């Protein structure tokens, strides 16, 4: 570049390039130019890649956050990778969570069943230990282990939809669920300290997830056994029963003959014997008047 | 007594209406001469005690059952034909259900007052059977079943059985999921009958369970046959009470030869009539405010469905409980199964309970050898063994009840249902004897206290200090009436067997039987605390002062003050 030639710039450039082409740094310069061109072209031609990259980072941070929460709150029983822990004698400390899916985590943690307070026959419903974001993170982490049932979206839980048939839901509930949960979802006892919980006041999402994933002693009702429409009908039936008033007066638990028998004895016969005792005391005045 | 028409004030003669009424009565009386009979029976005396009204509760709830039952028959359709429900209850619409269930839903939701009547009918059933049960316990514990009332006891046992049977058939009629499951258990019991079980089941259900007939077969049994029998037996029961007169509690002036109380008319007509309406009102109040058997929740019966929390009504609960705690025993006889785990609780157990219950008056007569008539009731403490047996039975029954609701109690108590069942399996064997022993001890203790009371009077709680510094408690003597009531019962000595051989060395042929009877008698009365004899009573009265100086704190104070404080 020591010499300048104004009118013949093109020639000058070709001359420079041709004279310096054997310069020791020529290959480096060509490489740099090519790289720069490729980079610029890539940046210019693929604009959609930028947000995708951002969300991927977010998801991986959510999974990462879930992994950390999992390591603190769950890994002592389920293992650091969610692979489950089994003692040497075969007792399961915590089952493997590979493939249980986000729905399972959302149900177990979202209803407070997990983490368990202590090893027991059954994890009871209790106050929820994590907030919604943390539950989502845990669900994301467990879902990342292997594909599994997903959390149902709101459209799948819309019990006010026109296609919903409450009576059909009742029929399905009595056929598939009432064996353990009683006809109105009051729940019931199972063997060795396990129980089918009362379904009163349980969120539709959680009922759906329970059917889909079969927590604890409950069997799995996959989408072939009970289609999403079936599940929605069942949920609608339960909501209907729960909101029904008791036309006959006090519900006394809607638990059937046991509580009715208690009432018949304590209130019925008890009250009438009290009246009998009272009416006997009336004899004194009857005597004095006759 | 009094007539409903008041006499006209100011005139000496009767009101013309009364006069003409009197003429009509006189006319009738001269032709059928009923006035003596009426006078005698209208003035029939009945004693007064709250425990004598338990049977009345049963009677009035039975009347209410008949009345509400008639209402229900007007709408109920005893048919198992299937229809698509399209009534008022939305969660059942479009479902294929039986006509029986559909008509019961209609009764509950569409017939005006139907739900109330259904609930009246159900609550009065529960109360009816409970009242019969406590009535029976009262009769048992007070010995009111003794001669001459053994037959009435037998009628009572029959009434209870019929009541349970009718309750169960009624429970089965609506064809809901609970009632169908109950019938399924009955079918299991029938199938467990050796040899003929299968045929019996086919006969009862008109083919393979559940068939299409059972509801229409149970219906006439429930509304006609059994209620008719109950009604007839109730009439017989009451006629016998009327004829044999009512028992009464012991006390001054009350003996086996008389009845002390108030006349039927007007006292008991008013009281019993009033109590009738109290029972009606009370049951209506329960039916109006407490929901019973909300069968729209249970759904229609379908043999493929069984729900958790399936229980029978309380009066069948003990049988269900026996089924639940029975170990799974099964015998294999030449390739045929004998299902003891069903046979024993469903068929053997009711027999084991009912036969001794029905025969108890005769069993006790055998033990006591007492064939005299008794019209004064026993205080339960004075027959400790009978009372103990009764309480042992109650404990046995309650444990079976708990077993019948073992899943319910597992949920309520938050305990594994297996533990509850295991605990009950043992306690059903162990607890009744324990209850017997404890009750007998308590009775003996109460008898001892009665005896002390008669001998030494009532503790006043007043502490006296003698000049020498000794503390004693003053005892006040009982009134004559109280003392009489405490000593009205007989001394009961156990029977001694006659000698094994007579003076000539000839063996007594009846000796073995006598010895057996004596052994039973000793079991019954061997350790009864006897009421004081005349000598004992006079002894404490006479030697009272002497004992004070001797210084036996307990006797001296009692006996001494008995006389010293006679004026109190």
TrEMBL record, chain B:
Q: Which PROSITE patterns has this protein been placed in?
A: CYTB_CTER (PS51003), CYTB_NTER (PS51002)
Q: Write out the entry's keywords from A to Z.
A: Cell membrane, Electron transport, Heme, Iron, Membrane, Metal-binding, Respiratory chain, Translocase, Transmembrane, Transmembrane helix, Transport
User: Catalytic activity, per the record?
Assistant: a quinol + 2 Fe(III)-[cytochrome c](out) = a quinone + 2 Fe(II)-[cytochrome c](out) + 2 H(+)(out)
Domain (Cytochrome b/b6 C-terminal region profile): give its ranges: 251-445
- What is the protein's membrane topology class? Multi-pass membrane protein
Which residue ranges have biased composition labelled Basic and acidic residues?
Answer: 532-555
Q: What is this protein called?
A: Cytochrome bc1 complex cytochrome b subunit
State the species of origin: Phytoactinopolyspora alkaliphila
